[in-house]
Amino acid sequence: MTISAETTTDLTAVVLVGTLTPSPAPSSSEKLARQVLAALAGHGVTGTVVRLVDHDVRPGVQVDMGEGDAWPGIREQILAADILVVATPIWLGQPSSVTKRALERLDAELSEKDDQGRLLTYGKVAAVAVVGNEDGAHHVSAELFQALNDVGFSLAAGAVTYWVGAAMEGTDYQDLDETPETVATTTATLAANTVHLARLLAREQYPAT
């Protein structure tokens, strides 16, 4: 993909992957997450992937939960980036437990403000990727949308891409021989709209409160 002439600001992204499977085992959530990152790269965005289960993210709703807590380092990457992507599997119709833990840790941002009274997450754009072999992609994305918006992130139109296999069958996204065209198209839309909004906010931040 050709980088748009609109690319006037270097943007960065962090992708939090909520798979329950530790590295180096393959993960459907990470596969879709990396496809989102590749689509963002087509618009001039550089980024990194963080598989949450590989890190000791402590339970809690504070910025730092003490010695050994890996969240402060992950948080530093999030605050340094323009775009946050959260990729999660569906388990029992819900986002994964590690994904929910990350959302709980982001709750601490409600107490963190800049010198003009804005949340530090204002001006940052979020997007979501969901995979599963059961129903629930819309429900899961709705939960993540609300949580991410609550803690200060903005979401563009079409801010989710997802794949859901046939219910009660064992095929995973990572088992597919090729990416379905509808998923690829939706991922491309997510990337284009997310970058567009991120560039707008990079040029003009939300007003002070």
TrEMBL record:
Superkingdom field: Bacteria
Listed GO MF terms: oxidoreductase activity
The NADPH-dependent FMN reductase-like domain, residue ranges: 15-152
Protein name, per record: Flavodoxin
Pfam family, one: FMN_red
Classification of source organism: Bacteria, Bacillati, Actinomycetota, Actinomycetes, Micrococcales
